[in-house]
Amino acid sequence: MLFRRKLLAWARRKGRHFFWREPGLTPYAALVTEILLTKTRAELVATVAKQILERYPSPPDLACASPNELEAMLFPLGLHRKRAAGLVACAQYVMEAHGGAIPTTIEELIELPSVGRYAANAIVCVVFDQQVAVLDANVSRIYQRFFSLPEPPERLATAHDLWAVAARLLPPRKAKQFNWAILDLGGLICTAKAPACTVCPLVKNCDRFGVPPSTRSRPNSSAR
Ligand code: SF4
Fold first, then answer.
1. Ligand 1 proximity of 145 Cβ (cutoff 6 Å)
2. Which domains, ranges and CATH numbers included, belong to the chain?
């Protein structure tokens, strides 16, 4: 599939490097990092996540964190009170319901406070090598533009469509690389306000690029 090949080739040259993409990431580190990454730029999260994992290296440490101290560490990300309360609640739930072990299934992870479908899928993909897609605002935007899918993304039917597209595009045995690549494209090239279409690896097949809105039609996404 052209979409995958072009995206993966681009990511090999231009993909971003973060500590949570290095081998040996623990389930706990993945959990904390993915919670922080939800609706937040990865570049901003990198420093803060590292500090939190050093200060609270395990679920029991985080479950007992001082709210003031944690809020101060989270301040650069915004919504620091809400994020601090969410992280502590999540760690406490892990302690109470799972004896301090991070759950290994999407169904169990989604039950944790502050963990949504995106974070749950990202955790099992990165740490447990499960072949599942991720979908956040950046990835949704790419699919909506590339395949001319209807907006707004909040509509249930559209969200369902987007998860189906994401699952269909996933290459066999390369979910992790593909997910990182599509996240990087959304963060670096297909940005919300100023997509850099002229340097995008998908430009030749993208419905959005150079096509007047009135002439766009909904395509069969499986055809690419
Ligand atoms: S060509 Fe432009 S709109 Fe299409 S995926 Fe690339 S950056 Fe996004």
1. yes
2. 2-15+133-223 (1.10.1670.10), 19-128 (1.10.340.30)
- Counting ligand 1 atoms within 8 A of each CB, the residue from 142, 149, 193, 205 with the most, and so the one to mutate, is 142
Q: Is 197 touching ligand 1 by the criterion CB < 6 Å?
A: yes
Look up residue 124 and give its two tokens: 């099992």
Structure tokens at 120: 């749950």
Q: Using CA atoms, how far apart are residues 177 and 103, in angstroms rounded to an integer? A: 23
d(CA 120, CA 207): 30
Structure tokens at 66: 């001082």
Compute the distance from residue 76 Cα to the ligand 1 centre, in Å: 30
How far apart (Å, rounded) are the C-alpha atoms in residues 80 and 73?
8
Check if 143 has its Cβ closer than 6 Å to any atom of ligand 1: no
Tell me the C-alpha distance between 145 and 221, whole Å: 12
- Supply the pLDDT for residue 151: 66
CA-closest candidate to residue 173, choices 134, 219, 109, 130: 130
Which structure tokens are listed for 3?
């979409």
- pLDDT tens, residue by residue, 87-143: 999 999 999 999 999 999 999 999 999 999 999 999 999 999 999 999 999 999 999
| Length of the chain, in residues | 224
